[in-house]
Design a protein that fits this description.
Elements: E1 11-14, H1 20-31, E2 35-40, H2 44-56, E3 61-65, H3 71-85, E4 90-93, H4 108-136, E5 146-151, H5 164-184, E6 189-196, H6 205-208, H7 211-218, H8 229-240, E7 251-254
Parallel strand pairs: 1-2, 1-4, 2-3, 4-5, 5-6, 6-7
Helix pairs in contact: 1-2, 1-8, 3-4, 4-5
The protein binds beta-D-glucopyranose.
């Protein structure tokens, strides 16, 4: 699909794109012809590496620093995007983090930090993107006025002890995405989520780093491999393109079957 340049003429903002899933989404969208704003909060080197990778394939990209939970930063990022590329057509609402703690040890600060980035950050970026979609109006580049892809997780569905802030943020993303889809569909704005399962990134290094850890993790994955960031980048390209024009308000699980309750495979 990438060689088809299915996103030619369009511009994407990818948040949290200096590493992991966000970086892979930025590169995949860039390889598919989109101009890309590679957002980062604290890792300029990672963001520049993504920009270079996109440019090496003949694409256009810039790095842009912004804390997605800060409204002024978000407004500046979208202004930079519009000043540079004219508009925005695609938002990959990816920036997210984990700060785990057992329930009784979780401070209010830790709770708020994760909710602010993972959920409020997606709200702020979606609002800024939709404002621009509406201002700009339809173009010949897509059947939709704009596309929003929210990065969720299998933990929008699977409860996760020891990670209540993270699981609550992803459960929130699920109904935010669906409510947005209901509200924005009549304006021809498509809103969907990707729910990755276990993907090899820095966020879950401990779960796959050693052979023993990986073996334990594979018990939870019927397809018997840990995911790659490219698995998610490919899904993002499809959801951003008109190949998925009738897909709206849906969570696409890209998880090797992690949500199939593999613990029940031999007996209930
Ligand atoms: C988490 C990872 C975890 C995966 C599957 C993701 O949303 O960020 O740490 O490995 O879900 O449990």
């Amino acid at each position: 699909m990438k060689s088809l340049k299915v996103l030619e003429g369009q511009t994407a903002v990818v948040t949290g794109a200096s590493s992991g899933i966000g970086k892979a989404c930025a590169i995949a969208l860039g390889e598919s012809g989109a101009n890309v704003v590679v957002n980062y909060a604290g890792n300029p080197e990672g963001a520049l590496a993504a920009v270079e990778a996109i440019k090496a394939e003949g694409g256009n990209a810039i790095a842009c620093k912004a804390d997605v939970s800060n409204i002024a930063d978000v407004e500046n990022m979208f202004k930079t995007c519009i000043d540079t590329f004219g508009t925005v057509d695609i938002l990959v609402n990816n920036a997210g983090l984990q700060k785990d703690a057992p329930f009784l040890e979780m401070s209010l600060e830790t709770w708020n930090y994760v909710l602010n980035v993972n959920l409020t950050g997606q709200f702020l970026c979606a609002q800024a993107a939709v404002r621009e979609f509406v201002r700009r109006g339809m173009t010949k580049n897509s059947q939709a006025l704009g596309k929003i892809i929210c990065m969720s997780s299998v933990h929008e569905l699977i409860p996760w002890a020891g990670h209540i802030n993270y699981a609550a943020s992803k459960g929130g993303v699920m109904l935010m995405m669906k409510s947005l889809a209901q509200e924005l569909g009549p304006m021809k704005i498509r809103v969907n989520s990707i729910a990755p399962g276990a993907i090899k990134t820095p966020i879950n290094r401990m779960a796959w780093e050693t052979p023993e850890a990986e073996k334990r993790l594979l018990r939870l994955i019927p397809y018997k491999r840990v995911g790659t960031t490219e698995d998610i980048g490919n899904a993002a390209v499809w959801l951003a393109s008109d190949f998925s024009d009738y897909v709206h308000g849906t969570t696409l699980f890209v998880d090797g079957g992690m949500t199939l309750y593999p613990g029940f495979e031999d007996n209930g």
